[in-house]
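Fold these two proteins, one after the other.
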Amino acid sequence: MPDINQEKQKPIDRIGGRQKVASIVHDFYNIVFKHPIMSQFFKNVQQQQQESQFTDFMVGRLGGENVYCGREVKPGYSP
């Protein structure tokens, strides 16, 4: 039987909060920045800055504090 309290939680809280999202984003970008093809898209980008901005973006999208201040996301990527 589903936990009613969990169903009322925001997605960010069910995931484990900002710290968990930051950990997932860090692991993801560690792979991307080392990949021979994918890393080419990030040639002039600092990994730490990319992780910080993407973490802010994801936290906001998952119902947490919206502090993302990067470029506007194209409509095709919006929910």
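Now the second one:
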Amino acid sequence: MEGVQLYLSNLIDIEAWLKQIVHDEGPIHSQVLSWRICSAAGIARAGNRIQERIHEVLVKLVGSGELLRDGDFLSLNG
């Protein structure tokens, strides 16, 4: 993921990255999850476009039941 322009990344790629991080570290706080994604992409901080993209993907994953949300924490379903 190094050097990726995260806000331009394919939603499927971001889904895979988010699910992998949640699998490895979950339950994980949503802010820590954003930091992990940015760190892996070589980004110092998540700007508005990146935060919006991550939020968009998380809403989709929680809505589909792939991830579970408990307050600000996310975990895999199952």
